[in-house]
Design brief:
This protein has five helices and no strands. By secondary structure, it is an all-alpha fold. It is found in: Membrane.
Length: 153
């Protein structure tokens, strides 16, 4: 251990902290909506449960994965772990993670759009698509800022 683990309340007022919290909240909402209401061939309304491989992929491999990692990063920043364990190079990890999360959410959004149009357009699925686009934009903005300002601080 290289530094002191302490509560970092300044995380809530920083731009990166606000983005992380927005990513977590939007990710939680998207995960719930995709799990409860996803386009599939069995129903023309919101189906319950995972109906096919692609819904499971979007739900588990994209939404739940990014939700867990983002939550762990929020906890790490609240405990000031990037400063206490500065030898672990959190900035590179977060730069690569936000880029990966952006690409995963782009893939997930495309899959949901393809399934929506393949199974008949339903208005309830627009919420899932819009929130997926918003979370993709939040991760893309975070990744852009981390790559652009990587040599600062």
């Amino acid at each position: 251990m290289s530094g002191v683990v302490q509560l970092n309340v300044g995380f809530f007022v920083e731009r990166q902290g606000f983005l992380k919290i927005a990513q977590f909240v939007l990710g939680l909402v998207v995960t719930i909506i995709i799990g409860a209401c996803n386009p599939h061939t069995g129903h023309y309304d919101c189906g319950h449960g995972v109906q096919n491989f692609f819904q499971g992929f979007v739900l588990i491999c994209i939404n739940i994965f990014t939700l867990i990692i983002t939550f762990l990063l929020i906890v790490a920043h609240l405990l000031n772990l990037p400063d206490a364990y500065y030898k672990w190079n959190f900035p590179i990890f977060e730069r690569l993670y936000t880029t990966l999360a952006t690409l995963l959410y782009i893939l997930g959004t495309v899959i949901v759009i393809i399934y929506m149009f393949a199974n008949g357009f339903q208005g309830a699925w627009i919420i899932a698509i819009l929130l997926s686009i918003f979370i993709t934009a939040a991760y893309a903005l975070d990744a852009y800022m981390r790559w652009k300002y990587r040599n600062i601080a």
